[in-house]
Amino acid sequence: MNDKYPKGQPRGRGKHLKQIIQAENYQNYPPIESNYVYVIDEPSAYLHFEQRIVTAKVIKRFILRRKKAAIMVEHDFIMATYLADRHIIYEGKPLVDCTANSPQSLLTGMNLFLSVRPATFSF
Fold it and tell me: Domain of life, per the record (predicted)?
């Protein structure tokens, strides 16, 4: 990674480094209009909670305006509930015995997710 940055160019840590790498990677993607489905992997990782809110709004606006679909992997509960129309909940032990449920509404999916925890989700 060091040879990506010229000498003397400031390097970020954590969220700043992630933002730099994301910006560089987006330059290599095909034009935005040609994509039908966007795959987004943990967009909130290393972001401060205020940046997570802004990021969620930007992603949602981007997808809705272009009338495209997105598949997102997210471990942040708030980001997942804000961004998703439907949820696919995995049950079991990761990498050992895991089953994916069919896509479900936000309410049903979150209650399934929370069913192994002492909580429920409602509007």
Answer: Eukaryota
- Could you identify the residue written with the tokens 């804000």? 82
Q: Is 8 exposed, middle or buried (0-12, 13-18, 19+ CB in 10 A)?
A: exposed
What are the tens digits of pLDDT across the range 90-107? 888 888 898 888 999 988
Dist CA 87 CA 61 (whole Å): 19
Residue-number span of the structural domain to which 59 is assigned:
13-23+35-75
Pairwise CA distance, residues 45 & 21, whole Å: 13
pTM for the predicted model, two decimal places: 0.60
In a domain? residue 56 = yes
Structure tokens at 40: 């987004």
Give the pairing type, strands 69-73 and 37-41. Answer: parallel
In a domain, 80, yes or no: no
**How many structural domains compose the chain?**
2
